[in-house]
Amino acid sequence: VQLQASGGGLVQPGGSLRLSCAASGSIFNINNMGWYRQAPGKQRELVAIVTSGGSTNYVDSVKGRFTTSRDNAKNTMYLQMNRLKPEDTAVYYCNADVGSYHYIYWGQGTLVTVSS
Protein backbone atom coordinates (compact mmCIF):
# COMPACT_ATOMS: atom_id res chain seq x y z
CA VAL A 1 0.00 0.00 0.00
CA GLN A 2 1.28 3.43 -0.91
CA LEU A 3 -0.02 6.77 0.33
CA GLN A 4 0.63 9.91 -1.69
CA ALA A 5 0.05 13.22 0.07
CA SER A 6 -0.20 16.40 -1.98
CA GLY A 7 -1.49 19.96 -1.89
CA GLY A 8 0.99 21.67 0.38
CA GLY A 9 2.52 25.04 -0.36
CA LEU A 10 3.07 28.60 0.79
CA VAL A 11 0.00 30.54 1.89
CA GLN A 12 -0.54 33.82 3.71
CA PRO A 13 -2.10 33.90 7.17
CA GLY A 14 -5.86 33.64 6.88
CA GLY A 15 -5.62 31.71 3.63
CA SER A 16 -6.71 28.21 2.72
CA LEU A 17 -5.20 25.02 1.38
CA ARG A 18 -6.61 21.60 0.57
CA LEU A 19 -4.46 18.54 1.11
CA SER A 20 -5.14 15.17 -0.47
CA CYS A 21 -3.95 11.70 0.45
CA ALA A 22 -4.44 9.00 -2.17
CA ALA A 23 -3.99 5.34 -1.30
CA SER A 24 -3.00 2.79 -3.92
CA GLY A 25 -1.86 -0.81 -4.07
CA SER A 26 -3.37 -3.93 -2.53
CA ILE A 27 -6.14 -2.26 -0.60
CA PHE A 28 -8.89 -4.45 0.73
CA ASN A 29 -10.19 -2.44 3.61
CA ILE A 30 -9.06 0.93 4.91
CA ASN A 31 -10.18 1.55 8.47
CA ASN A 32 -9.30 4.91 10.02
CA MET A 33 -7.26 7.48 8.12
CA GLY A 34 -5.46 10.31 9.79
CA TRP A 35 -3.58 13.55 9.28
CA TYR A 36 -0.52 14.33 11.37
CA ARG A 37 1.89 17.22 11.29
CA GLN A 38 5.39 17.91 12.47
CA ALA A 39 6.65 21.43 12.92
CA PRO A 40 10.39 22.19 13.04
CA GLY A 41 11.82 21.13 16.38
CA LYS A 42 8.57 19.59 17.55
CA GLN A 43 7.12 16.13 17.81
CA ARG A 44 4.66 14.81 15.29
CA GLU A 45 1.10 15.44 16.42
CA LEU A 46 -2.27 14.11 15.37
CA VAL A 47 -4.36 16.71 13.57
CA ALA A 48 -7.49 14.88 12.44
CA ILE A 49 -8.94 11.42 12.02
CA VAL A 50 -11.71 10.17 9.77
CA THR A 51 -13.21 6.71 10.21
CA SER A 52 -14.38 4.41 7.43
CA GLY A 53 -17.89 5.59 8.17
CA GLY A 54 -16.96 9.26 7.89
CA SER A 55 -16.87 10.21 11.57
CA THR A 56 -14.21 12.79 12.34
CA ASN A 57 -12.21 14.06 15.26
CA TYR A 58 -9.78 16.98 15.51
CA VAL A 59 -7.10 18.35 17.76
CA ASP A 60 -8.43 21.39 19.59
CA SER A 61 -6.10 23.84 17.83
CA VAL A 62 -7.70 23.20 14.42
CA LYS A 63 -11.34 22.71 15.38
CA GLY A 64 -13.59 25.03 13.40
CA ARG A 65 -10.84 25.73 10.83
CA PHE A 66 -9.91 22.33 9.38
CA THR A 67 -12.24 19.74 7.89
CA THR A 68 -11.25 16.23 6.93
CA SER A 69 -13.22 13.91 4.68
CA ARG A 70 -12.70 10.84 2.57
CA ASP A 71 -13.94 9.35 -0.66
CA ASN A 72 -13.92 5.60 -0.11
CA ALA A 73 -14.55 4.88 -3.78
CA LYS A 74 -11.34 6.73 -4.63
CA ASN A 75 -9.41 5.64 -1.52
CA THR A 76 -8.61 9.29 -0.97
CA MET A 77 -8.71 11.50 2.11
CA TYR A 78 -8.80 15.28 2.16
CA LEU A 79 -7.94 18.01 4.62
CA GLN A 80 -9.49 21.40 3.96
CA MET A 81 -7.56 23.98 5.95
CA ASN A 82 -9.10 27.43 6.35
CA ARG A 83 -8.04 30.52 8.31
CA LEU A 84 -4.49 29.24 8.40
CA LYS A 85 -2.11 30.57 11.03
CA PRO A 86 1.69 30.71 11.10
CA GLU A 87 1.63 28.05 13.81
CA ASP A 88 0.05 25.66 11.31
CA THR A 89 3.36 25.60 9.45
CA ALA A 90 4.56 21.99 9.38
CA VAL A 91 5.08 18.94 7.26
CA TYR A 92 1.71 17.21 7.04
CA TYR A 93 1.59 13.44 6.85
CA CYS A 94 -1.28 11.10 6.22
CA ASN A 95 -1.64 7.57 7.45
CA ALA A 96 -4.04 4.71 6.99
CA ASP A 97 -5.05 1.76 9.14
CA VAL A 98 -5.55 -1.08 6.67
CA GLY A 99 -7.15 -4.49 6.92
CA SER A 100 -8.19 -6.77 9.73
CA TYR A 101 -4.64 -6.79 11.11
CA HIS A 102 -4.61 -2.97 11.23
CA TYR A 103 -1.37 -2.41 9.38
CA ILE A 104 -0.38 1.27 9.49
CA TYR A 105 0.94 2.97 6.38
CA TRP A 106 2.37 6.50 6.07
CA GLY A 107 2.57 8.95 3.23
CA GLN A 108 5.72 10.91 2.49
CA GLY A 109 4.55 14.27 3.83
CA THR A 110 3.72 17.58 2.23
CA LEU A 111 5.04 20.92 3.49
CA VAL A 112 2.62 23.66 4.48
CA THR A 113 4.12 27.08 5.14
CA VAL A 114 1.95 29.89 6.46
CA SER A 115 3.77 33.18 6.19
CA SER A 116 3.33 36.70 4.94
What does this structure look like?
The strands form 2 sheets. Strands 2, 4, 5, 6, 9, 10 and 11 form a 7-stranded mixed beta sheet that branches. A 4-stranded antiparallel beta sheet has the order 1-3-8-7, with no helix packed on it. The termini are far apart. The protein has no helices and 11 strands. Helix content is about 0%, strand content about 55%. The protein has strands spanning about 1-5, 10, 15-25, 30-40, 45-50, 55-60, 65-70, 75-80, 90-100, 105, 110-115. The model has no long low-confidence stretch (mean pLDDT about 95). The protein is an all-beta fold and about 120 residues long.
Question: Which short descriptors sum up this protein?
Answer:
116 residues, mainly beta, seven-stranded mixed β-sheet, four-stranded antiparallel β-sheet, 11 strands, globular
Describe the structure in brief:
The chain is mostly beta strands and 116 residues long. It has no helices and eleven strands. The protein starts with a strand and ends with a strand.
Structural class: mainly beta
Largest sheet: 7 strands, mixed
The number of helical runs is: 0
Report the helical percentage.
under 10%
The percent range for strand residues is over 45%
Name the overall outline.
globular
Order of helices and strands: EEEEEEEEEEE
The radius of gyration over CA amounts to 14 Å
